Amino acid sequence: MINSLRPIAGSASLALALLLSACGREPQAPRVSVEDIWVRLPAAPGRPAAAYFTATATTKDEAIVAVSSPAAKVEMHETVTEGTMSMMRPLSVASFAGEDRIRFEPGGKHLMLFGLDPKLRPGEKIPLSFRFRSAPPVTVQAELKALGESGPEHAGH
């Protein structure tokens, strides 16, 4: 009787091992990529610059909690319109709000960069470091553009 149970026990052990190996996969850690990043230099030295980008997250409950750079003091802002008035207001967190992508673009959410070195020129790059709610930090190089130049999303238009 015991010998007749060995094939069943062996098959059950194999099935259990396969089941556990499928369940034993580690869930993928949240990640965020930052692309198409660029900085519009100010019209006059000493004025703030603005930065724009697209961030894509692997989880929809992600948020950008801070952005920093050794080249400037960085603040997140958004442009809001009330009636006929448009104004900027600071953002402490930029939530993906159930989406997998968030855009910082002219006329909407954007980064303000204060204290950029006036010697910086179009075509140069500065690092911007992003911190997120749960994803690891990301540092990217943002290309500097002159006033009137547009970023990657308008190339060829």
TrEMBL record:
Gene3D superfamilies per record: PCu(A)C copper chaperone
Keyword Cytoplasm attributed: no
Annotated SUPFAM superfamilies: DR1885-like metal-binding protein
Keywords from the UniProt entry: Signal
PROSITE patterns: PROKAR_LIPOPROTEIN (PS51257)
InterPro entries in the cross-refs: LpqE-like, Lxx211020-like, PCuAC_sf
Keyword Signal in record: yes
Protein name: Copper chaperone PCu(A)C
Species whose genome carries this gene: Sphingosinicella rhizophila
The organism's taxonomic lineage, starting at the top: Bacteria, Pseudomonadati, Pseudomonadota, Alphaproteobacteria, Sphingomonadales
